[in-house]
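Postdoc handover notes: sequence design on the structure in folder B. Input tokens:
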């Protein structure tokens, strides 16, 4: 399917589907999955990266198990708004996944998501060693929660738009 806009997500998430969030690292893929009400992001264990075809198979099996209807993937944009090599890797990952799955992807600006996730884990008093094993899934949850919050605001704005006057 490839990349869709966030505004197209609600149509893809009908029928009890969930939404997944991914944070791509060089060594791991952080994963988080929403609840069916699209309120909360729940971290899942990281996927250790080996080879794309193996990583994709593990990821797709997890997404099927979690009844995922779409995937939000963090796009690591530079602080100046430009896209560097890591953003290009994320776009290539989506292109390759689109050849293996019909799931739609939403690209989400992930600036500072890892920093925010690490601060949260520090506040929760995780040791450095425990943080290392959880940081990518925590970042995926942070990315996914941003998407879920945006979906909630889109839904709220759609409900508050005035209806056109009826012809009397």
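Designed sequence:
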């Amino acid at each position: 399917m490839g990349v869709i806009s966030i505004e197209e997500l609600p149509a893809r998430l009908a029928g009890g589907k969930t939404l997944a969030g991914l944070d791509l690292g060089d060594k791991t893929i952080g994963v988080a999955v929403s609840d069916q009400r699209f309120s909360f992001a729940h971290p899942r264990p990281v996927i250790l990266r080996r080879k794309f075809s193996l990583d994709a198979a593990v990821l797709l099996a997890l997404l099927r198990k979690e009844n995922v209807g779409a995937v939000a993937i963090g796009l690591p944009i530079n602080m100046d708004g430009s896209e560097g090599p890591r953003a290009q890797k994320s776009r290539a990952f989506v292109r390759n996944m689109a050849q293996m799955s019909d799931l739609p992807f939403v690209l989400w600006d992930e600036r500072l998501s890892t920093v925010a996730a690490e601060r949260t884990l520090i506040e929760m008093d995780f040791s450095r060693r425990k943080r290392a094993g959880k940081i990518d899934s925590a970042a995926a949850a942070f990315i996914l929660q941003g998407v879920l919050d945006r979906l909630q605001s889109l839904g709220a704005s759609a409900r508050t738009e005035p209806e056109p006057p009826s012809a009397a």
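Context for whoever picks this up: The first strand starts at residue 2 and ends at 3. Don't rerun without checking with the PI first.
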